[in-house]
Amino acid sequence: MAPIQQWTDNDWTAIGTVVAAVGTVGAFVVGLYLVGVQVIDRRRAHARLVNAWLKEMRTEAKPLPVFVIRVDNSSAEPAYGVLIRLVYGNSGTFVRDIGVLGPEEAIELDIVVPGLRPIDPTPDITFTDAAGRRWTRYGKSGALIEGDPNPPFEQDPGAYPSNEKHPTLGSPIDGRSGRRISKH
User: Of 179, 156, 134, 3, nearest to 86 (Cα)?
Assistant: First the structure.
């Protein structure tokens, strides 16, 4: 039987050095990960503060029901190229071009719909932040995605044969004529 060798001080020093090196590399990797998370958070900071929601359903409005959509930019920077999309079942898809939404500004849009459906619509919003990044927030899930919407925001007459034959899509309503609300 071979004698068991005792560990020397040099052996213990080598083990300690290896453990310290592994710990240092691990700390470096964790540090890089945290920096990456901060960069992503900073990129999303402005986008998180731009939202749209269905504020009110005026079901008794004449001659047709009106949905009031509130679009809000709670950030300190403007949002550019703001588009709102409201999908309302087979009644159509309504898109409004707001253009620029200033810092701490909100706008309320009236969207006239051709009758009521047993669904609760939620608007989607797409815009470009001050750094030039395009963002899309989907109303049903609240998901905020960097990039252009898929599918693109386009009006659709739904069950009607065309935009021109749709009772409300053919109207010259533009989001820029909405009620602008400054929060200052």
Answer: 156
